[in-house]
Amino acid sequence: MWKWFHQLASPPHFYRISAILAPWLAIPGTILIAYGAWQGLFVVPMDYQQGDAFRIIYVHVPSAYLSMMAYMIMATSGAVGLIWRIKLAHAVGAAAAPIGAGFTFLALCTGSIWGKPMWGTWWEWGDPRMMSELILLFLYFGYMALRSSIDDTTKADKASAVLALVGIVNVVIVHFSVEWWSSLHQGQTVFKKGTMDADMRIPLFIMLIGFTMIFGSMLLRRIRTEVLYRERRTRWVREMILSSEGGA
Amino acid sequence: MDSGFAMGGYGAYVWSCYGLTFVIVVLLSWRGRLRQKRVYRDIEVRLKALEDRE
Fold this sequence. Notes:
Order of helices and strands of chain A: HHHHHHHHH
Largest interface: A-B, 40 and 32 residues
Helix content of chain A: over 70%
Shape of chain B: rod-shaped
Radius of gyration of chain A: 20 Å
Structural class of chain B: mainly alpha
Oligomer: heterodimer
Number of helices of chain A: 9
Distance between the termini of chain B: 68 Å
Strand content of chain A: under 5%
Radius of gyration of chain B: 22 Å
Largest sheet of chain A: none
Number of strands of chain A: 0
Helix content of chain B: over 70%
Largest sheet of chain B: none
Structural class of chain A: mainly alpha
């Protein structure tokens, strides 16, 4: 297990393995999303309270879940990079940030669009779920800005890893905000028993799996780029590019 | 068919969410590919220049 882990953490090995893995995540992920979206839009019965507006759940929940998952990946890889000084870990964090920011923006937009017909407002400044999700977006922006403002990669890695670790507090707040405080946002529904009929829940799980696979594929591709950039002066990159075996 | 797209009056909200999701996912994927190609090309150019000099 440890041998496999150490092998995977080796940049040239990871670069080769990820090239094989990425399409195996992207293709089934796209099929699952297409199927889940079709089910969510046309097959699943409408909700008795929210009507057809509830169909937004099939894009809102996966994007909100990925917004938090990407941050957890960023923070965990930051911790691994700081503690064990694994070079690949910092590349993972740097690669996860823009994807996480994209899904956080999407969660905020779809939530706001869903909120208008259900709550009568696009945005509520006092709502803990909305505000903590907005802070999450700013944390992503801060992480990326901090990285690009420091020229020394090692220093940038360390500083951004610390910021990512501090920001975990906000991810916990995002998750539990609907339980700790009164919020316009509905409480936990997806994993709570008896809150959703199986006809509605199964397409949501399909979408969650599909989105996770697409996210995995995007992440692998971005880590590969990050690895290539960081290792640009190494022998293996030189040999790979000159022999044109690696492919872009 | 029209009623399917109208979504009981919520069509604009539902379709805009799905459309935006599609745009963001495609954009994230495309940006990732673009950066990968750019980094690869930059290294290739630098290595070729080094080889020519040698």
